[in-house]
Amino acid sequence: MQENFLHYIWQYQKITTTVLKTIQGNNVQVISVGKLNTDSGPDFYNSRVVIGDQEWVGTVEIHLKSSDWFVHNHQNDSAYNNVILHVVWENDVDVFGVNQNKLETLVLKGLVDEKLLFSYKRLLQKKKWINCENQIHTIDEFTVSFWKEKLLIQRLQRKANEFESQLLNLESNWEALLFVLLAKNFGLKTNASQFQLLAENISFGVFKKEVSNQFNLEALLYGQSNLLEGSVENPYSQSLQKEYLYLKQKYHLQDSLVKLQFFRLRPASFPTIRLSQFSMLYHNEKSLFSKVIAGKSVSVIYELFSISASEYWDEHYTFGNKSIKRKKMLSRSFIDLLILNTIIPLKFMYAKSLGEDNFEELLRLYRSVKPEKNTILTRFKGLKLKQESSADSQSLIELKTEYCNKQKCLQCEIGNKLLYHS
Question: What is the pTM of this model?
């Protein structure tokens, strides 16, 4: 049994009797269970409980065994001085409060329905993929849809929180934040961290000064990516190297540790191609941040990112090696990834900074983008969970990574429903 199951029992008062007594023999009446504390300190705060003839307002601490009080060293932590009730599954030792009196203790063992205990054990019994895979199909569509929307908001908030520290490091420069985030996502999974490092090494301030000249932007990117190192034999890369050395001196750029990977990438995703496309994007769109924030439909965003690599790359994937002539445009699926991983979270974060709520606008964007394709979503499809748009797929990815993988069934609406109807 896990302690969070006892939190669940207390929070929703899943107790089979209304007659409660502490181990001291005092009657207990729960007026308010309080609010679950997700930070350090006692488990529930602002609880209101009548013990005997006295009403108390304070905190409630919950443990599997009462001896866990000492295991967790609560006796030496002043944050626990205001505990009015100790709720445990088993009482194996006396616990004394700050006044040296025995802490009023409520034992839950024997007060919980056996069917609920059985459902809990069945739910938490690890299956092949997720705990409820044999039961999730029984959950009604309303519950699933409601929970998926909450998951989508949580995912947005979590991504926005990740961006906040970056924004702080960039001195609250939103354009610079977009620059770094886009660079990271242009690198895809294989080169994401190195593309981000590249953008941070150059800095948006320097990059912005050269946006009128796309060739110069390429020189900066390839030079700082160390793709112009060694013997350079073709005229194009020689010209880039010459320009980069000038720009490096002009902006006092430091030697870069960026090391990009080509291995196991499709040629269309080679860093040479992505960097040229990235430079072309900023060359074409001088007010990219403003247009991204203003864009309220995917058609506007698709048009904004409808760019290709420079002309040299029409016949190349790497320097000097000719290929069949083909325009290297950003694909619709690639732009979709930018929308999901950068644009929507950034728009959410920016609106929040202005005190505005733009979730309905973002939800329309989500619903206009096709669902992604990956192993997680394939497995959920096998469990009959519909995926009509990226609103569905993003919420299901959040469900798997933040709840199923972390065994947080009791914080999940689906897990709660399965227990509630036991």
Answer: 0.81
